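writing this on my phone so excuse typos. first protein, seq and then structure
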Amino acid sequence: MVLRVENIGSLANTSAARWNGVVGDRYPFLRYEFLAALEACGCADTATGWEPDHLMVVDGERAVAVLPRYAKHHSRGEYVFDWAWADAWERAGGDYYPKSLSAIPFTPATGPRLAIAEDIDRRAVIAALAAAIRESGLQTWHLLFADSDEVDDWQAAFDAPLMERQAVQFAWQDDDFGDFEGFLARMSSRKRKEIRRERRKLAEQGFVFDRLTGPRIDDDALAQFYRCYCMTYLERGQRPYLSLEFFTRLRDGMADALVLVRASVGERAVAAALCFEGRGLEGRSPDGNGTLYGRYWGSEVEADFLHFETCYYQGIEHCLERGLTRFDPGTQGEHKLTRGFAPVISRSLHYLDHPGFRDAVDEFCREERRHVQAYFEQCRLRLPFKTEVD
């Protein structure tokens, strides 16, 4: 086996068959259809500061590993914030940008960032990629929201220290609940009553919910979802990162992974959330039965508890009905705790090719991790499930 690292640049320079031949349908955001749609629609391309710089590892003519990578000209759309680092680097006379970034654009969902064929030596692939990254000429490389095993493998492959940053996210895990009532039955009486009251209030206002998958997500449903999605940005005076064309390409290219939750009053759909299913090797939960990823949401109306129902409770019900054992509803949000989403640690790695700056950043990361761990422990105490005293 002789491994060679190829810089393929844009995904337009390879085929879906060649890329997905390594990735499969393990994790929806690593699929060719998702990443290529971002480029083709101008959401993540050179013009928007996400210059595609993807790497492919080949053995002879066969692609055996792929790593999404971008030469990034700013720090927007990443959700691991390094603005202070960039400012300090440039005040010292350096050029922080462009930086090398391995991440899924606009997607803070933990998962694999590297896909490797099953019969290929993982350590050899990572060693070859680490050498290519160090020799790229860029002074920094960032690996965001990677699986823990992958983070450990990368740390072992670099001869210079990789700084680790951590953050707390929240995820639901099935514990043989059976159905939604079984899930509620594990909660303390007060929390159980609160959730039932929230759902009842929406029903009393005439809200009904349905979940569309695959070809049932037609153009009208997609257009209504997009109007709602745009509202979440317009309310903050921002333009949305993603276009209707992007979502249409996803629907046309990977409908098998999409779940659209709609909230309607009468005949009118007024709110929506778009989720993704992952059932493959890296996309599934530890016992192998799959993960639901909540990603995009919006509403054309204001109603108490509408966000919780559309983005959380409907997703939990979908998981219980489909046998998915994990639900990652998106980043941040302590309000998820009281609704049964436990804290989890997300991990990111950072390579800085400047010893003095690296030492200062490493000390910052160590202190940050201490605070994150303390916050994680506090969050665990706020989960709504019954204890022995209950």
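second protein below, same order as before
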Amino acid sequence: MLINCVAYENGQRLSELPVEQISDYLARPGCFVWVALRDATPAELDQMQEEFGLHELAVEDARHGHQRPKIEEYGDSVFTVMHLVEPLGDDYNLGELNVFVGGNYVLSVRNRSQQNFLGVRARCEREPHLLSHGPAFVFYALMDAVVDRYFPVVDQLESELEAIEEKIFVEGAARNNIERLYGLKRKVMQLKHVVAPLIEVAGKLSGGRGPAGCASSRDYFRDVYDHLMRLDASIDTIRETIGTAIQVNLSMVAISDSEVSKRLAAWAGIFAVATAFAGIWGMNFEFMPELGWKYGYPAALLAIAATCLILYRRFRRAGWL
């Protein structure tokens, strides 16, 4: 679906125009066209390919989607794939933003995402001295908007991790903590797969050997690269903390199991002594000491109770009970 199609000249907005007139404005010196599509149909992509002369391989990638974040050069044009991350319940919805950039055009194709970039267009139009740099600055503004939307996602992950850490030492919460930690680890890996490849993209755009059409905005792409490096460092820190939290949680489970085992062993030892006494006096021999004694039975019970009490106090003093 076509969101908007606008022509710009020398940093100023000229007008919105129908797709059929794109080629007319592309022929004007100092003019470029910025087109935004959402969930584009094959027919719309074919039309844009005809108007802008897009490379068929780039159009094929945009048509099928589910691409890894990347940048590809086709002559004087650039094709870039970026992922859009949106919280969706306990998971993430991963959309895509495909950007085609040429000397006098920018085409953005947004797929499977509710995020819009109307604010990016408004920002660019408020800064005509920067917009006069042409499609390269628009490309930067789109990438910057995508990257900036990763920061709240990282903040949310950090908050979730802190909430889990507060319950690590709560008795009986081990299983729930493990499940939540592994769920959080999966989301962190999703974000890592989004950010890490984009670092390579931003590094290429900000480097000296980047696409010639983006050279005028190289300093701005360097700023995006710095943001991505910060995000990547934060993600790595969260991953390491999750790993530590999992180990601590498993250690707490092992300690808890050890405490239970010691209690069971202590009680088993106490009852084993009582069983031994009862087993000895339960043997049906004719001649046994105190067998005919009037107080033999109470004395036996007293001996068993005293022995068990002594063992209980020793186990209690040793911390087993």
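The two ends are 71 Å apart (CA to CA). thats all i got for now
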